[in-house]
């Protein structure tokens, strides 16, 4: 059985972290993970991901929620939009929003929104606040503390028990949208009567789909909302949000590791399966520490059984 889906760059990178290459890469591929029931291959240029094997359909389903909206035509639209931020945007007073933890089996989903006024942009940038993925943990801690002291912010953190409950009846993208909307609305309330020139969300899906997820919510923050992949490069507020979210997530990981009695690794690779299997063997409740809908759960259960 074979299934091919098209994804955005953000998701592609996330998949690359999850599907760790363990076999020969075909030409043009960025990753290829060969598993027992499914082999997953991601193609760098087209951002097409191929699932092969008896579990192809099932594994592709994990990502399929928004795939119908991820046709090449719309990806082009998104690129145009990215290029089309208003001139001088980087100097505006912007409320930025970003999340971490979506690709990590252990730990929370954390969204942070941070308001950076025009007169703070330079100082925040000069601190070295940039994409949290490029910073070390000690740097994150130092920078986050400075950002949180100087800028209004709000963090929405879903630790695994709450995450597992909320993901029951919605996709991860829908859950992310709800968290961003909540964090943004909280900061907007905190900074009143000031109003940001714009709101920038680090794009994880089509804006149209994002707002679809928010149907029925009150309020829906949609005025002056822009989306951009690599949003941290478009405005310091998204970089600051990325740093604050990572900082909070780190703290939660430490706390959860302590509760678990072992260091919980980030990501979703084989080491994660091993640690999850150890938790199972120690009769720990995985749902307290991990995002159970990931395929790691089944892999860990299998490992736990075979290592007995
Ligand atoms: Mn992001």
From TrEMBL:
UniProt-annotated binding residues for a divalent metal cation: 98-99, 202
Listed GO biological process terms: DNA replication, removal of RNA primer; mismatch repair
Location of this chain's protein in the cell: Cytoplasm
Amino acid composition bias (Basic and acidic residues), ranges on this chain: 65-83
Reported cofactor(s): Mg(2+); Mn(2+)
Keyword Acyltransferase tagged: no
Record-listed E.C. numbers: 3.1.26.4
Region ranges (Disordered): 61-83
Task performed by this protein: Endonuclease that specifically degrades the RNA of RNA-DNA hybrids.
Name of the protein described by the UniProt record: Ribonuclease HIII
Species the sequence originates in: Candidatus Limosilactobacillus merdipullorum
Phylogenetic lineage: Bacteria, Bacillati, Bacillota, Bacilli, Lactobacillales
Annotated gene: rnhC
